[in-house]
């Protein structure tokens, strides 16, 4: 699975691209740090079995704050966020939510799956797949089975009761690890290593330019 380091680097890349004039060291740290915080449910999963990739990897983590931000900026006569944290705050908040969605939740959803609608609906959804063009089959995608009777069912997997994602902290679902190797990945593939280097490099360049 993508490591926290990869998530943070991807979030930094999005932040460097989207913050525009709101970019400064504090803003990019908010964007990147927020993405790292979602992996705290790795530790929560040790106490509440099955909540890794559920408690902080669901769509409500983004949708609820987005609704509040939309209300604050579009409906309220005076934005509380802007008044409390400054004119750049709404953009930093929106970019942070975009990073949470694309650099973490969806990134994991398309890599072994997440419990997207937990706790309202306890089901892990795995969108892993490929998108390609062939000379015999044309455009092919395997993320979801569109020809299946129930698209949601084609991507649905287990629940928090029977699904476990192995981590260095909890390699055996809450049981003593014993002789099991504890693995803490940084960049498990070459592509993720390149993404990590590019993300941190882009943030560093923006910080230097900003100063």
Question: How would you characterize this protein structure?
Answer:
With 211 residues, the protein is mainly alpha-helical. The protein contains eight helices and two strands; from the N terminus they run H-H-H-H-H-H-E-E-H-H. Helix 1 (4-18) packs across helix 6. It is globular. The mean pLDDT is 92.
Write the layout of secondary structure elements.
Elements: H1 4-18, H2 25-37, H3 41-47, H4 60-75, H5 80-85, H6 89-109, E1 131-134, E2 138-141, H7 151-155, H8 190-210
Helix pairs in contact: 1-2, 1-6, 1-8, 2-6, 4-6
Condensed summary:
The chain is mainly alpha-helical. It has eight helices and two strands.
Instruction: Give the strand content.
Output: under 5%
The spatial strand order of the largest sheet comes to 1-2
Q: Major sheet, described briefly?
A: 2 strands, antiparallel
Which segments are poorly predicted (pLDDT under 50) over 5 or more consecutive residues?
A: none
Total helix count? 8
Number of beta strands:
2
General shape: globular
The helical percent reads 40-55%
Radius of gyration: 19 Å
Class by alpha and beta content: mainly alpha
Q: What is the terminal separation in angstroms?
A: 35 Å
Mean pLDDT: 92
Order of helices and strands: HHHHHHEEHH
Question: Which features characterize this protein?
Answer:
211 residues; mainly alpha; 8 helices; two-stranded antiparallel sheet; 49% helix
């Amino acid at each position: 699975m993508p490591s926290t380091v990869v998530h943070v680097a991807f979030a930094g890349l999005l932040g460097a691209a989207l913050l525009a004039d709101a970019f400064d060291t504090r803003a990019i740290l908010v964007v990147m740090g927020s993405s790292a915080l979602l992996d705290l449910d790795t530790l929560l999963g040790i106490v509440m079995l099955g909540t890794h990739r559920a408690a902080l990897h669901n769509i409500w983590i983004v949708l609820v704050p987005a609704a509040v931000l939309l209300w604050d900026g579009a409906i309220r006569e005076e934005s509380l966020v802007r008044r409390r944290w400054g004119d750049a705050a709404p953009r930093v908040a929106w970019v942070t939510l975009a990073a949470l969605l694309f650099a973490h939740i969806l990134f994991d959803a398309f890599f072994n799956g997440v419990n997207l609608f937990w706790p309202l609906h306890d089901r892990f959804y795995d969108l892993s797949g490929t998108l390609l063009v062939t000379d015999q089959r044309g455009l092919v995608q395997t993320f979801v089975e569109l020809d299946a009777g129930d698209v949601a069912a084609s991507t649905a997997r287990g629940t928090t009761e029977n699904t476990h994602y192995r981590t260095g902290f909890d390699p055996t679902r809450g049981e003593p690890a014993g002789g099991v190797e504890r693995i803490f990945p940084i960049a498990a593939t070459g592509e993720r290593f390149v993404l990590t280097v590019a993300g941190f490099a882009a943030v560093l360049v923006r910080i230097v330019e900003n100063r």
